[in-house]
Amino acid sequence: MAMQRILIGITCILLLVGLGWALTGHRNSAPEGPLVLAAASMQGALDDAASDWTAQGNAAPVLSYAASSAIARQAVAGARADLLITADQEWMDRAVEAGAVVRDSRADLVANRIVLIAPRDSMIRLDLSPDTPLATVLGEGRLSMADPDAVPAGRYGRAALSELGLWQAVEPKIARAENVRAALALVERGAAPLGIVYATDAAQSNAVRVVATFDASLHPPIRYPIAQLVAGNRDGAGFRDFLLGPEGQAILARHGFARP
What residues contact residue 113 under an 8 Å CB cut-off, 6+ apart? Predict the structure, then answer.
């Protein structure tokens, strides 16, 4: 009887081990979609594109959003991501120079514009010109924008204001946000009377309105490059090609992005 109990116990242990191995093997064999590091301003558009891509039977991409400065640094540091999408060329250039990008995989994905926004119920009316009294209109309030020392949207905004001759007067009144979505949120909450964000961000918010659009000649062209990363361990080429192709471009266009 004792021997029989021992044999039964061993059999149960072996069955449990086998079951655990089978479950683990099944889980590990499940397809994993590409991990995408993307600029925060791409969030709504990429979410929709990923949904369509997944609905076609592909593994769902994992999307991680932050300021271009943050995601580019992650890529340079060797993050195990498959795709990088930044909101300007400079941060992608840094990833390329660091050897983090797959050669010949870089391409311009979309283009954008920057706009001046105010809360939906604001009565502010402005035309953007060298004579615009922007600092006076702000009064004791702040101009919300992504950090102009690091984040592309902020750099574009600073370039435009500098070209208009308004930056020096406005700089002390800047509320520096971590990324463009954070800058948008400050205006949405009424914490800032004015802000500079991408046109696509303003279009997705019901809490703000566009006061003025910056002329494209006032700042460098706003282009979002996309590239595969050397450190990736999943195939990001398929999703990259989808985003660059007609289906992906149509989805991005619905969110206000233009072809580069």
Answer: 198, 199, 213, 214, 216, 222, 258
